[in-house]
Structures are given as structure tokens and as C-alpha cells.
Design a protein that fits this description.
single chain; alpha/beta; Rossmann fold; Helicase, Ruva Protein, domain 3; Arc Repressor Mutant, subunit A; five-stranded parallel sheet; about 15% strand; disordered N terminus
């Protein structure tokens, strides 16, 4: 076992299971123990707790580490495409099959296949999967030839599969086929001592991988992160830190740079401040505008127009000197302005405006009435 885990690939994978909590120590040890065997492993736990990270670590620490690791999202592998996607097809087996494909199982031959979100799989498809796991052969679509596959199966779900079996939504025989060894992840709020360690690692990765500034957390920010309940778990922590780096003015992240967190309140009672609240603080220093990257915004200096008889320099007032309400429009203000701009761009054509906005014309009509724009708009 030691010789397997000592390989660099396995060591790196184990080190990515970050944490000083008893759970983190136990999971790292469990990975070392199960990796050297060929048994199926079922990884259970909430979304965003690192189930795929554990699966990749098991593969990297196994004797199959040099072979393929093929992840499959079972939530989107549905219907008639399931057999082709999982088991492959031969050329001409159906319309559009211009060439043969291996399918996920044959692509993972001698390696590992990771069936993510296995609890979302339809019952009919569960039966097809069960046969492959039992017989260790696949039959490509359009063929009658059974092809043997040597694949280790890892699966993950955020559902309680035992309850799903009781409710008749998951096959009992497939459950026991997958549940040879079970590893459970826990919510981040139950291992809060890992938050500072995880945060330091992610901040270093942001700097190295994305060329973002290398930032550290202030003591107040660390305390804040450890008070939060983290409904999105580790994935939410990554997103919060990335936003914090973007909106921090220096190398240290202070509480006002954190968004999507519970940061204000009296006593132990806290109230949420979301991304818009954090952006409002950024807006107090300038204009916030969208960029081509989803969720990324640009803050630019806000220069007020000069009033008649006032020199331009005197008109350039710092945004912080103005009230936050004056700087930050309400959602209704933004929607009304966008409706007006869309109607102007379409020359008051409601049908075209509704199409551009991606809504039904009746919905557009109600919005125009709500904002008092309906009377001002001529019928096309």
C-alpha cells in the first residue's frame, strides 16, 4: 500500500483533501485504504463538499492511476442517449451515427469510471447499468456483440439512497452493487476549523492559476467566515473568496470585501448581505459595470457632470461623499430603464421587444403597465 500511495500523483491528490478536522484526517486515511482494492465506492454527502475530489484521489492512489479517469454526470445522461453515451454505438446504428464511438465504459477500460449524481438516474436506465456492473460487458448500440470491460466504479450522490430505495425511486440491487464501501462527506459548517486552511489554499491557487493578486484574510474576516453556516459548502467558499479578491483594494481581505455572507446584526443574530450589497459598497467608490465574464464587474471612477457655471474640477465629486441610495438604483429602476431602451431600439415594436427580452408579449404588456409605459408606446 505504501508504494502505491507514495507515487507523486497519489500524494498530490491526497494533499488536495485539505483540512485539520478529524473528518479530513479520516477521509484521507480512508482513501489510502480503499484505493489499493478494486471494490466499488459510494461517496455520499451534500453538494459542494468535494465528492469528485475524493473520487479523483482514490483513482490517483490506485494501481489504475496511469489509466483513464472518466467522470459521467448521470443527471444529464438520460433517455435514448443513455446507451450510446455509456456503452457506445456502431456506425450507422441510428440517424446521425456517422462513426463508431467507444462510450464512457469502454473509454474507461482498465481505468476508473465516476458516476456522479447517481441518485438522479431514471429507473429504466438503472437496470441497464446494473447489468453492465454484474456482467462486466457492454453491448454498443447497433451491435449484438458483448465486449468485456475492466472498469472500477466510483459513484456519488447527495441523496439518501437508502430512503430512495424505500420510496421505490432507486433499485435495491443496484444500491448494494455500488455500496460496497461508503465514504461520507459532511457540510462545511460541521468542520468549521477547516475554513482558514481551505481559504489560504484557495487564495494561493487564485494567485497562481488566474494571475489574481495574492491576498490574505484579516483576523476579522477569518472570524466572519467561521461564523457563517455555508449552505453552499466548500464550493460557496471558493466563490466568495474569488469575489473578495476582485473587490479588495489591498492585499488583505477585510469583512467589507466579502459578499454573499451573513455579516451584520446585533449580538449573535446576523443578517445577510449579498452580492448586490457588496457591489453597492464598490459603487460608493465608482460605477459598477458588467464585463464579458459572468459574475465579474468593473468599478470605474464616477465623474459627475459639470453644472452650468461650475468648473469641471469642482464637479468631480467623490462618490463616497454622496448617499448610497443616490448611487445604487433599485431593481425596479433598472428594469424600467431596460424596458425603455429596448422599446427605443425596436422603434416601439412590442413583439420584437418581447423577443429580444426573452419574455412573452403578455408579460411585456403587464410590465409596461406597471411602470406606466404602456400609454406612451404606440402599437406596431
Amino acid at each position: 500500500m505504501d508504494s502505491v500511495v507514495s507515487n507523486s500523483r497519489g500524494t498530490d491528490a491526497i494533499q488536495r483533501i485539505i483540512g485539520i478536522s478529524p473528518w479530513a484526517e479520516q477521509v484521507r486515511r480512508s482513501i489510502e485504504l480503499v484505493a489499493v482494492h478494486q471494490s466499488s465506492v459510494l461517496i455520499l454527502g451534500p453538494s459542494g463538499t468535494g465528492k469528485e475530489l475524493i473520487a479523483r484521489a482514490i483513482h490517483a492512489c490506485s494501481t489504475r492511476s496511469a489509466r483513464p479517469f472518466i467522470p459521467v454526470d448521470c443527471a444529464v445522461t438520460t433517455g435514448t442517449l443513455f446507451a450510446s453515451h455509456m456503452f457506445g454505438h456502431v456506425k450507422g446504428s441510428f440517424t446521425g451515427a456517422t462513426s463508431s464511438t467507444l462510450g464512457c465504459f469502454r473509454a474507461a477500460d482498465t481505468g476508473t469510471i465516476f458516476l456522479d449524481e447517481i441518485g438522479e438516474m431514471e429507473l429504466e436506465l438503472q437496470a441497464k447499468l446494473l447489468r453492465v456492473l454484474q456482467q462486466r460487458v457492454v453491448v454498443p448500440v447497433g451491435s449484438h456483440q458483448e465486449l468485456p470491460v475492466d472498469v472500477r466504479v466510483l459513484a456519488a450522490t447527495n441523496r439518501d439512497l437508502a430512503s430512495e430505495v424505500q420510496e421505490g425511486r432507486f433499485r435495491e440491487d443496484l444500491f448494494y452493487r455500488l455500496n460496497v464501501v461508503a465514504i461520507r462527506t459532511i457540510p462545511l459548517r460541521e468542520r468549521i476549523e477547516d475554513v482558514p486552511v481551505l481559504a489560504a489554499r484557495y487564495l494561493a491557487e487564485l494567485a497562481a492559476r488566474h494571475g489574481m493578486p495574492m491576498c490574505t484574510l484579516s483576523n476579522a474576516s477569518t472570524d466572519l467566515l467561521q461564523q457563517y453556516t455555508w449552505p453552499g459548502n466548500v464550493r460557496e467558499l471558493e466563490n466568495v473568496l474569488e469575489r473578495a479578491v476582485m473587490f479588495s483594494s489591498g492585499e488583505q481581505i477585510d469583512p467589507d470585501a466579502l459578499s454573499g455572507l451573513i455579516v451584520t446584526g446585533t449580538g449573535d443574530e446576523l443578517s445577510p448581505v449579498g452580492v448586490l450589497g457588496q457591489m453597492a459598497m464598490a459603487a460608493s467608490r465608482g460605477i459598477v459595470s458588467a464585463t464579458p465574464l459572468p459574475g465579474v464587474y468593473r468599478v470605474e471612477p464616477k465623474i459627475m457632470p459639470a453644472a452650468p457655471g461650475v468648473a469641471p474640477a469642482a464637479a468631480a465629486q467623490p462618490a463616497a461623499a454622496q448617499s448610497e441610495a443616490d448611487l445604487w438604483p433599485t431593481l425596479a429602476d433598472v428594469e424600467r430603464l431596460h424596458l425603455e431602451r429596448t422599446l427605443t431600439a425596436t422603434m416601439q415594436n412590442k413583439s420584437l421587444a418581447a423577443k429580444m427580452l426573452g419574455i412573452d408579449r403578455s408579460v411585456l404588456r403587464r410590465k409596461l403597465q406597471r411602470y406606466g409605459l404602456d400609454d406612451a408606446v404606440a402599437e406596431e
